[in-house]
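Page 37, top half.
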Amino acid sequence: MKEFRRSRRRQVAEIIQVTDSMTELVIGHVGNVSETGMLVMSNAPLVVDALYQLRFALPEGISKTAFEVGTHLLWRDQASAPGQAWTGFRFITMSEQQMQQLRRWIDAPGSQYA
């Protein structure tokens, strides 16, 4: 089966926690990231078609780049572990500077793609 995604999705080797900025609760960790969204393994009761303000930091050399983004939860599928779900978020707000940093990180040499 061939995939027809518009944006490349970079696999994440490190544990990158995702925090709900409104509640300050960690909702899960990043599975992969593209310019348009991200896959998150979630351990929080999230609602499909809801809007979330999320925060996460991508590793970039020694320092980390923090992102604060508005997202739309497109889908949610139960994972094999109880209380966990795979969740697909679409980015709806992100600063231009953060988008440029995200593009550089996705396109960095040595990246692996989903």
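Page 37, bottom half:
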Amino acid sequence: MRRTVLGAMAAAPFAAGTARAGLAPSRPLIVNTLGELSDPNFWGEETGELASDRVIRDAIASGTSAINLTLGYVSGEEDPFEVSVRDIARWDEVIRRHPASLMKVYCPDDIETAHRLGKIGIIFGFQNAAMMGSDASRVDVFDDLGVRIIQLTYNVRNQLGGGSLAPEDTPLTPFGREVVERLNARRIMVDLSHSGRQTCLDAARAASAPICISHTGCRALVDYPRNKTDEELRLVADKGGFVGIYFMPFLAHERQITSADVIAHIEHAVDVCGEDHVGIGTDGSTTAIDDMKRWAAAFAEDIRRRRAAGISAAGERPDSFLFAIDMRGPEQFRILADKLAARGHSQRRIEKILGLNFLDYSRRIWSDPA
């Protein structure tokens, strides 16, 4: 099979075990700005194991250098603060058990170190700031625990603002503004994924530092609430922020997405934001599914539960899976790179999209001021 120039360059370095000698690797630096270290073959099951050996091997084989890993409270009846603190402790223990493969990310240099050593840099991130309760000083607690990205809302409304499913276009609340100010002061990334339009615009304007949308699509292409309008995307980019495009069903209307949909949304985001502000936040795993029929049944049941809980977004369907059907498993980033190259994108632009843009964004947020 004919391969692109980038594909030929990247194929060997994407293999597991690359760069274990501690030398600077030739493979591209890849940051998944919202992803998972989970095994989809156990969808909906409580295995008692976080980040199995297979999952870690697959993530390394995919070429992933760092991943924004969701932990802590997202939704449900449990106490958000307690859940979040407990989950941080669990993932700290996972990282301690796998020192040769995983490392916790606190700063931009850690992403580069993980890349150089062939490890997976784990960025602790929240997808809901409900654990702040009514006390913005809790930002300091989570900063001290190593949380580097905090998303203000999930799909529904919370005390900070509106999610994408809120029935009205809820603005950022006064408490939300207080939390944004505190996040900026502690140099934690403010994530506006899942937010409603007005909350997103308000937060981007209120922030004194660039904000991000770690995983989204473009609403100009597919009009689902989970996708962002050009107004939101442009404002984030104009203020020096970052936008990650996901591999989620919201990239197409009522059908299974393919790599062509992912690329269409990446290209639109580049047109709106510029090539220095766009990356990838797949919202998925790099482990392949062994039994698709079994997985599809478990996925359909999860959609039913999410709908019953009122947190299922428009576009979530049992027949629209959480990945591009022709771009999944450990090969997904190599496939994306090859397809972008075939579309005429330069090697430099592709490297930016795969991870360099997020690395640059992290320097604007996490680095100590001069």
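Margin note: The two ends are 50 Å apart (CA to CA).
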